[in-house]
Amino acid sequence: MEESVALQENSNEQTRDNFDKAAPDTVQAPMIRSEIGAATDPSSQSNSSSSSSGDDALRIRDSAENTAPASGLVIEAGEGQHQQGPGIGGSGGGEDSPPNSANQVTVVGDKAVRSDIALSVLQQLYLPEQTDAYRKVNLHDKTLSFPHSPSFPSVKMLLNHERKRILVTGGAGFVGSHLVDRLMLMGHEVIVLDNFFTGSKRNVQHWLGHPHFELIRHDVVDPFMIEVDQIYHLACPASPPHYQYNPIKTVKTSVMGTINMLGLAKRTKARFLLTSTSEVYGDPEEHPQKETYWGHVNPIGPRACYDEGKRVAETLTYSYMQQDEVDVRVARIFNTFGPRMNENDGRVVSNFIMQALRGDELTIYGDGQQTRSFQYIHDLVDGLILLMNRNYKEPVNLGNPEEYTIREFAEMIRNEINADVEIMSLPPTEDDPQRRRPDIGRAQRYLGWNPKFSVYQGIRETVQYFKKTKSEQAWYTD
What we know:
One of its GO terms (molecular function) is NAD+ binding. It is an enzyme of class 4 (lyase). The protein has 478 residues and is α/β, with parallel strands linked by helices. Helix content is 32%, strand content 16%. Strand 7 (136-138) and strand 8 (143-145) form a beta hairpin. Helix 6 (247-268) runs parallel beside helix 7 (304-324). The radius of gyration is 22 Å and the shape is globular.
């Protein structure tokens, strides 16, 4: 048994260095009933080019066997109902295009680690032209059926020694599901571990059945054994209503869950990445916040279960590195938004968008002069993949240094959705940080990472997603 483990460890050490070497040419595996244009080949993409949007588009075709379109929701209408559901496009265009569309990001990722993907490809996973390729909705008797097998996007074809086995804890959540999409499209084998407290199977259902994908219902508080090459440890509720719902469980997830995953990394010699948070800085007295700042945290306040839990998780991570030579990375994530956010998670972006869509007043706590820095989800995923595959072990801030007051952000979303709604002030919440802005010098210097997405472009996509979600809910409740 020890000999087999040793052989596996040597194999892991060889595969881990592949990203630091020159990448050979890759080809794409064929799709079942859909295909991706040539722009998904990294060699044909350019981060600064927007002239190949036609090639970048995800081209869906019907199969010769008269099966359903690869990205269509089939709706059976009842009496007096139209058969076609609302079509909400994922790539924008037409009258809805912003005036500065020439500056829009069209390619995400980084060629250096072969994570570059056309944005239009990713959009088909969370903003398809129609919803859910293989679900059939009968509006008359309000039933769902699944008459067709799913079709999968093309993924890059990697040699066996290039393809990594990657574990993503919390991979069915908001951030985790976008990370899974990227890792799958890069050609790796991905195992998602999630207890579905805040995550949803629907976030990753488009990969269910794919030979490179595995979904396991499991709580990281309990030990878990598997052979992997990399571990992205994201598991932990991250919004105040969720982590304050059961503060003891939140602490156990951050502490015991991290111990279990670090123990797994130690045994398998896997590289381990902890997603920490800007909350470790508390209500900061330094602005902007550098990674060297130790923070200003209330250890017994309502946020302490999350803030201090993540601080302990960082302590554990570096203790395993120093004592047991575990290969670790730590990302301190600042406010992030995008599609697949939980509409009821109590975060600023989802709150404002849902209130504006309903025509309700936008609620801010206090005078709204607290500041936050908002990054779009694709920028965060770029940073996580770069950090995992670079040789840098110190904590790294991942966030957008553009700083907005909460009131400014509320006005931005109001103007995008419904300019007629009012903004209402409520009493401030306890221990709410007054200023939050990352210093991203380390990420720029050691990872070559910079956020690409403007807040405006991110808001437009996120609003599209919530409109689509709201429309689906209307279908089921009408």
